[in-house]
Amino acid sequence: KNTKSNWISTPMCLAFSNFQETYSPGRDAKAFVMYDFVPESITDADENTYNIVRIGKQLWTSENLRTTRFSNGEEVPRERGVWQEETPYYDIAPHAGVQGIDSEEEMVDAYGFHYNYHAVFDQRGLCPTGWRVSTIDDWDELIDFVMAHYHNTTHDNAGNVLKIDRQVDSPLEDAATNVHPRWDADDTHHANNRSGLSLVPGGGRHVNGSVNNLGQWGTYWEYGRQAANLRADYGDVRRMNWHTNSGYAVRCVADFEGYEVKFTITDADGQQPIEEAIITLGAKTVKADASGQKRFHLPEGTHTYGVDAEGYEPVADQSFTIDGEDIEVTVAMDRITSAISPIAGEIKVFPNPADQILWIDFGNLHIDQAAVTLHDLTGQLVLRRNFSINGLQMKGLEINHLTPGVYLLNVSTKQHEVVKRVVIH
Predict the structure, then answer these.
(1) The whole model's pTM is what?
(2) Burial class, 111, CB count within 10 angstroms (exposed 0-12 / middle 13-18 / buried 19+)
(3) DSSP 150
């Protein structure tokens, strides 16, 4: 990468004193559905799981690293005293005296571990395979992206966009809290986490073993003997050069080579979002949210999709092409119309999803015969049954021979008809 940035404007320091610790997992970090190409989370050598946030063409963990092992399974030594030169170490900030944190486990949950230079840059690797400790270039690209894409973001306040939106006496909605993890109060700079990165003020570990500035500073190793530093009382991100046996937090980064596809599912007029519409994309079948939307991350190329929603005509065998940029796909669906009276409220289908037998409960309907069909989203008939009800309330369909996916179930009688969406595992 040759990304240039002028966000670094502080003098270099070789050691630091008067430090404190803090960091925490992000609260409701920007959520994306990760489709095949990008995982929703990653797992370290200790089997800790970390949520992922996409920012531009980067993937970042939205929580501080807390592994006790390198990626090959070998242990990272823990040392509570003074760290010796040339030896990798980690430690946990002491919770004694920190109001609101009552155990070491709570401290780790809030702020993760502090690692020294030798642990961070050990060839065995702290981050999971395919991921790296954030580099100088990564931070340059991150700052440039948020300045370019978040309204009114400059060098002077880019750090506020990256900080977790938990802060003492914050004037921002739902951000004011005394519960860890959180930034200390400031009259000017308010953490808003618009990026979803959720950086926390884990402070740092001095070369003498003390930990200072919990709640005030969030300092993160960069690949090199440098660290990105954020503080509660300023809005920018600064770069500092610290002693190799100082201890700071770690975030892991990977490159994102794909693009975002935003689906919006509406009725035919484009006015009403269709909640919980089922989108089938490749091998994935997912629900749209309450606003009829869903986001995917996909590589370049042409992708085929289908959409189904109860009460609407299915959309099948449609496609879109990604060619070097994010795109939006809007699907307008027509309602199912029939001259026959609907009885959807009187017939129940369960379980849904199903994998062996799909049961149809006819309730108190006074009918003798019912025709049942099952179509896939391409419209192909895959199953047909004629049932004699004769006073029985339930009938079962064996479906274990069918390919997993989304289907439309049609139940017809002389007087009624109902169409229901079913999912087969």
Answers:
(1) 0.63
(2) buried
(3) S
